[in-house]
Amino acid sequence: MNPFQGARFVLAAAETRQLPPDAGAEIVFAGRSNAGKSSALNALTGTRALARTSKTPGRTQQLVVFELADGRRLVDLPGYGYAKVPLPLRARWEKVISAYLRGRLSLRGLVLIMDVRHPLKDYDRQLLGFCAELGLACHCLLSKADKLSRGAASAALQSVRKELPNDGSVTTQLFSAQNGLGVEEARESLAALLDRAISLG
Ligand code: GDP
């Protein structure tokens, strides 16, 4: 059974105070624009149009919240990886992201989507830095794995893993929304993140 089946749009929040009550459990999806985040959300939830909601004009600077059948939540953090975004807007948005990651008690983990051919860019490292600082678990999806040969994809996975902490705080896998590679593995890892009790230490 897919625990993410039936996710439905709840709201989009420009500020953290507009989010649903901070109870229960949620995970947040992040990635540079074009990394394949919408496709990953659609593949994981089995809901083709789900992440189109996040791409509606005006939502590019909002946290988009989806609710699962059991009241858990997936939050889509729109990527701001555009050089085009004017600096003041970018600074404001970075503040919102930082406030969200630091302050959200129900947040159990971050899912970082990176194109397997272009992983660990500045934006990704910034988010990984937040996770390390906050003790937030991170699961990385190396997306579009179908674009590489099996050997090249596996080499890319190993090289990313080598750069990341190997204490269990960050996990990484190959993923393809196109051919389904890693979709089941991702569902299991993300369900486990949502099930995690928060460590209060
Ligand atoms: P987002 O901006 O991160 O939400 O990225 P999208 O999900 O919209 O994907 C960006 C582009 O990459 C689109 O043209 C997708 O069709 C393509 N894409 C996304 N995932 C995959 C994948 O697993 N395999 C391939 N080959 N293309 C993908």
Describe the structure.
The chain is α/β, with parallel strands linked by helices and 201 residues long. Helices cover 33% and strands 21% of the residues. It is built from 5 helices and 7 strands; from the N terminus they run E-E-H-E-E-H-E-H-E-H-E-H. The chain has a 7-stranded mixed sheet, sandwiched between helices. Strand 6, helix 4 and strand 7 form a beta-alpha-beta unit. It is globular. The termini are far apart. The chain binds guanosine-5'-diphosphate. Guanosine-5'-diphosphate (GDP) binds next to helix 1.
Which keywords apply here?
binds guanosine-5'-diphosphate, 201 residues, 33% helix, seven-stranded mixed beta sheet, alpha/beta
Quick description:
About 35% of the residues lie in helices and about 20% in strands. It is of the alpha/beta class and about 200 residues long. Strands 1-3-4-2-5-6-7 form a seven-stranded mixed sheet, with helices on both faces.
Strand sequence of the main sheet, in spatial order? 1-3-4-2-5-6-7
Residue windows where pLDDT falls under 50 for at least 5 positions: none
Order of helices and strands: EEHEEHEHEHEH
Can you tell me the overall shape? globular
Secondary-structure-derived class: alpha/beta
Bound molecules: guanosine-5'-diphosphate
Mean pLDDT figure: 90
How many whole angstroms does the radius of gyration measure?
A: 16 Å
**Largest sheet, if any?**
7 strands, mixed
Q: Considering DSSP H and I runs of 4 or more, what fraction of the residues is helical?
A: 25-40%
> What is the total tally of β strands?
7
Strand fraction equals: 15-25%
Gap between N and C termini: 33 Å
Total number of helices: 5
